Structure formats: structure tokens, C-alpha cells
Amino acid sequence: IRSTTVPNVDGSNNTEDDDEDDVVDLAANSLLNKLIRQSLVESSHRVEVLQKDPSSPLYSVKTFEELRLKEELLKGIYAMGFNRPSKIQEMALPMMLAHPPQNLIAQSQSGTGKTAAFVLAMLSRVNTLELFPQCLCLAPTYELALQTGRVVERMGKFCVDVQVMYAIRGNHIPRGTDVTKQIIIGTPGTVLDWCFKRKLIDLTKIRVFVLDEADVMIDTQGFSDQSIRIQRALPSECQMLLFSATFEDSVWQFAERIIPDPNVIKLRKEELTLNNIRQYYVLCENRKDKYQALCNIYGGITIGQAIIFCQTRRNAKWLTVEMMQDGHQVSLLSGELTVDQRASIIQRFRDGKEKVLITTNVCARGIDVKQVTIVVNFDLPVNQAEEPDYETYLHRIGRTGRFGKKGLAFNMIEVDKLPLLMKIQDHFSK
Ligand code: ADP
């Protein structure tokens, strides 16, 4: 019988394939979060607004009608199933659609409606009679650019004369081509190339400039400087918008450098609680026994969608193989996979093709699994000192108070790990 934490003969705790890549790929996480999420993240906090001109009236809207949008745009919004503006959109949209245009820096956690807001702003400012780039959106990666483009296409479904083009590596445009698409979405390097070297885009004609995922952007070597070079060439009347899910000092400094005279909107992140979660543990002898316990509840957990967490990559692999051999339809989300492969696994899980996702801490770190109602800790999260990792436990299982769905959590505990569980219990008083 092998336990997950039996040290190697040399005394170290790690086996060669257990230490997952410790570098958190922010862009990959952001993409996976977009894929795993199916609806708006609600918030009980108030939106904080800092106006560049505090004496000007502050508008907020409760309906999309109040925004006096073009009819085909309003139709697109409703076709996406949006009934009313999200919390951040209530404040941001009136500023973004104002005349004369106002610049904006907006920060709120992912899933709160930022992308939808700036896509709306871009679509509303396009002049369809003019066939040249008018809106420019910078994204950190090819995949994220495509995701934004999909939103443009969905929301702009009835704006038949509006077209999108991707300035991303691999999209080869012959020299001398006349770019007639009004909305360009791309990564900083390629956009810079298209603007300055290849002269495909005339930056002086851009009306709306969006810098999305600023926190991810500044994390990537060279992107800040490239973005600033692009921004410097924009006309002064161009509307400049910056979005970020987080707001550390570094993001803030970058935002202030790149967005002149901004209004600022912030929405605090919703705290996680364990209040709506029923937590159980199953006491087991060993790993085989944990596996049996999991099989016993398997029929029940696959009524919904479930995520099973293992402590190591090796354990996750073992569990996946066992379950598959027993004929269960599960998939393994592992750090070894490429972003595309992980995205496709998440998409299949989202679509219900697999009901159970097996993963590790590291792989799932930063991914918002809160839409999933059933979580199984096949191993408890522990840190390197083999103490409980409370934060990870809360992140796996916790939900946001008022809006979070009710959830179920099962912990499979080997007898010798019971003290860890008791510490977790004490820590959360649950
Ligand atoms: P963010 O850019 O902050 O991550 P998104 O704009 O991608 O957020 O929105 C998150 C999810 O909520 C998406 O699935 C989007 O379609 C949906 N959404 C956005 N705005 C609204 C709204 N006003 N009403 C309902 N759903 C919305």
C-alpha cells in the first residue's frame, strides 16, 4: 500500500513527476476561468467610483434601454440573455458611452461583466460606413484575444456591417493590404508590428482603445512597453479604457501611466465562506480504501458535476486510471497538458460530457471552480510542512455568501490524517 506522503528513500518528499510547474500562468488561468464560468459573478459590495471631475454628475443605469443604444446592439445584448447591467456595468457603461468620451480604469474580479461592457462600448462607437480600424483592443494572448472576439461577434450579431480582425501571431496579412475591419483585437507585439512596421493600422484614426487584463499584461515581458508605445501614437480624443481583475500597486502604476485623466471604478472581491456548504468526511484505512469510499458515493456525485482534488500529480494520475478502468467517465486536468488541452477538457466538463474532473492543487490554483457544486478532497490540501493549507481548502470548497450555490464537500481521510482535518475544523469553526 502506498500512501501519498511516504518519503522517498533519500528522505525527500517529492518524486520526480510530483513537483508541478510552480509558475502560475496568469494568462492560462484567465482563459480557463472564462471557459469554466457560465454566468455572471454577482457581488454584494458597492462599486467605488473616483471621478476625474468630482463635480460632474454621476450616472448609473439599471436597464440597457437607458443607454439609448442602437437597436441592433440592444437586440444583440438581449440575444445573449442579458436582462440588466451587472453591478460594474451600471456605473461603467454611462461613463464609457458618454459624450464626449471619458477614459476609464476599471477593476473587478473576473466574471463581473467587464468584457461585455467594453465590447458594448466598442460596438456602439463604430461607424459602419467607414471601412478602417476604429477600435483597438489589446489582450495578453492569442486565446484571450479570440475569446473577446467571440463576445464581439455574439453581441454584434445584428450589427451586420461591423467586422473584427485579429492582430495575432500567425495571422499573416500581405503587405499593402487595406484593412477594412473596424475592430482589431490583438496582442501588443503583433499590433505594434501592424501599426508601425507594416502600416496596416493607422493609429490616428482609432476612437476606442481598450487594454484588457492589465494585470496579466504587465506580467508578460515587454507587453507594458509595447502597449505604451501604441498608446502614445493614439489621438488625444481617443477613448482609453483599462481593465484588470486585480489591482496591485504595479497594475495601478501601469494604469496611471497609460490612461490619461481617468475615471476609476473598483468593485471589491466577494469573500468566500463555508456557510452554504455541507462538509463530510469519510475515515479510511489507506488509499485503496479511500478509492472504495469514493466509488460508494460516485453515483450520487455524478448527479451534478464534481471536481476531485488530489495532492500530487502522481496521485491524480493513479486515481484517473483506476476510475477509468472501473468504467467511470472522468477526465484528468493536469499541469503537464498544454493550455489548449486544458481548455478543451474544461470545455467538455462544462458541457457535461464528463461529469467528473480530477485535478491537483497546483493545476487548479487560480481557477474558479465555484460553479461546481460537489467537491471531493481525495487528499486534504497540505503545505510543505505537512500542515493544513486552509486557504486552498477554502478556495476549493468555499462559495460566496449570498450568491454562491449551495454545495457539498467530501473529504477522504486516512486515519493518520485525522488531526489535520480537526485543525481545519477548528480553523473554520465548521
Ligand atoms: P469579465 O470580463 O469581468 O470576466 P464577462 O464580461 O466575461 O466578465 O462576463 C462574465 C459572464 O457573465 C459571461 O458569461 C457574460 O456573458 C455574462 N454577462 C456579462 N454581463 C452580463 C449581464 N449584464 N447580464 C447577464 N450576464 C452577463
TrEMBL record:
It catalyses: ATP + H2O = ADP + phosphate + H(+). Residues 95-265 form the Helicase ATP-binding domain. Residues 276-430 form the Helicase C-terminal domain. It holds the Pfam family Helicase_C. GO terms for molecular function: ATP binding; hydrolase activity; RNA binding; RNA helicase activity. SUPFAM superfamilies: P-loop containing nucleoside triphosphate hydrolases (SSF52540). Residues 62-90 form the DEAD-box RNA helicase Q domain. A motif (Q motif) lies at residues 62-90. Keywords: ATP-binding, Cytoplasm, Helicase, Hydrolase, Nucleotide-binding, Nucleus, RNA-binding. It is found in: Cytoplasm; Nucleus. Its main location: cytoplasm. This is RNA helicase. CDD domains: SF2_C_DEAD (cd18787). It is an enzyme of class 3 (hydrolase). InterPro entries: DEAD/DEAH_box_helicase_dom, Helicase_ATP-bd, Helicase_C-like, P-loop_NTPase, RNA_helicase_DEAD_Q_motif. GO terms for cellular component: cytoplasm; nucleus. Its EC number is 3.6.4.13.
